[in-house]
């Protein structure tokens, strides 16, 4: 395969990423709905929405019924995951644009993949195959145990921590300008799904003695975040990276604060074990206040930098909005 053929295939792949949904034209044949008795032309009954051609139950119906239990029917879970892996930003963009039928419900998808991952990583491999990853948890043991036993909720909570930073840093983007916080929630849920799926696919490497291999799932997830954000918001690679840097820093510090608030004994152990003078002198309160203020400071700096970087675009957007209103 020469360079020209590779280029053509890549262009076809890009076109598929942006517009993969090729819906069939409506049938012109007269159909009879066995559900409500209406006669119609098209693929679905306009009265009750039942699909045309639905007749007696066969083995296909049995297969569909069983698959629906596990989310493998309409808007297939596996198909949605496949789309997330091949066109992450585009499927998320489609969903928040109002194309709800392009994806399996994202929150439900997050809970299902998290349950599957928990079962394999935390029960099946340790108990059946006697494989376990020894971790030096230190003071984070309480958090890790809670995270392990409540992975679905931990993922959902983690999703919310990046909503506000993403809204602040990307709300003047070329695409999805002024996206809303509820839209930001679903954006983060989709990315959490990607993170869990990548971790699941890279489970064998977690048992590798090589630090690089065991870190590979985090690296691949980070690449997905960059690609996804770039496809959703339309910034250049550099514009996406530095904005994501502010989002990441703010989210990580906020997550640390949430961990310390939920498991205060961890930070107390750190200071006591180090026999820190901060504990003795009561300065720990000042440190906690500083830790709470740090994400706000980072977000404030990012906001100012973003305002400067998008000044020209915001002026053009304001002029266009004024012309439309007049």
Widest β-sheet, arrangement of strands: 1-2
End-to-end separation:
55 Å
Mean pLDDT across all residues, rounded? 80
The tally of helices reads 17
SSE sequence, one letter per element: HEEHHHHHHHHHHHHHHHH
Helix- and strand-based class? mainly alpha
The portion of residues assigned to helices is: 55-70%
Mass-distribution shape: globular
Strand content: under 5%
Radius of gyration: 25 Å
Q: Count every beta strand, where a strand is a DSSP E run of 2 or more residues.
A: 2
Number of domains: 1
The largest β sheet comes out as: 2 strands, antiparallel
Low-pLDDT regions: none
Description:
Helix 8 packs parallel to helix 16. The longest helix is centred in the last third of the chain and has 26 residues. 69% of the residues lie in helices and 2% in strands. With 326 residues, the protein is mainly alpha-helical. It has one domain. The mean pLDDT is 80. It is built from 17 helices and two strands. It has a two-stranded antiparallel sheet with strand order 1-2. The N and C termini lie far apart (55 Å).
């Amino acid at each position: 395969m020469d360079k020209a053929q590779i280029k053509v295939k890549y262009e076809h792949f890009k076109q598929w990423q942006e517009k993969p949904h090729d819906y069939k034209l409506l049938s012109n044949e007269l159909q009879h709905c066995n559900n409500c008795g209406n006669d119609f032309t098209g693929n679905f009954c306009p009265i009750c929405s039942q699909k045309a051609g639905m007749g007696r139950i066969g083995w296909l119906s049995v297969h569909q019924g069983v698959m629906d239990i596990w989310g493998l029917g309409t808007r297939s879970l596996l198909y949605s995951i496949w789309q997330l892996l091949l066109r992450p930003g585009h499927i998320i963009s489609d969903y928040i644009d109002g194309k709800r039928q392009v994806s399996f419900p994202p929150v439900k998808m997050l809970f299902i993949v998290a349950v599957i991952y928990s079962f394999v990583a935390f029960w099946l491999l340790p108990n059946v195959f006697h494989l376990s990853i020894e971790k030096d948890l230190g003071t984070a043991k309480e958090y890790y145990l809670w995270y392990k036993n409540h992975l679905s909720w931990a993922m959902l909570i983690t999703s919310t921590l990046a909503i506000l930073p993403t809204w602040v840093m990307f709300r003047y983007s070329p695409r999805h300008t002024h996206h809303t916080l509820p839209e930001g929630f679903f954006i983060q849920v989709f990315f959490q799904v990607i993170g869990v799926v990548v971790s699941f696919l890279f489970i064998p490497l977690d048992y590798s003695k090589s630090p690089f291999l065991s870190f590979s799932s985090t690296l691949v997830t980070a690449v997905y975040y960059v690609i996804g954000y770039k496809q959703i918001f339309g910034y250049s690679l550099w514009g996406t990276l530095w904005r994501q840097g502010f989002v990441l820093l703010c989210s990580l510090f906020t997550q640390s604060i949430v961990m310390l608030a939920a498991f205060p004994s961890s930070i107390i152990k750190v200071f006591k074990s180090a026999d820190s003078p901060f504990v003795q002198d009561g300065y720990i309160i000042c440190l906690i206040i500083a830790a709470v203020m740090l994400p706000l400071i980072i977000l404030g700096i990012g906001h100012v930098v973003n305002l400067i970087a998008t000044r020209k675009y915001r002026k053009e957007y304001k002029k266009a909005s004024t012309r439309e209103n007049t």
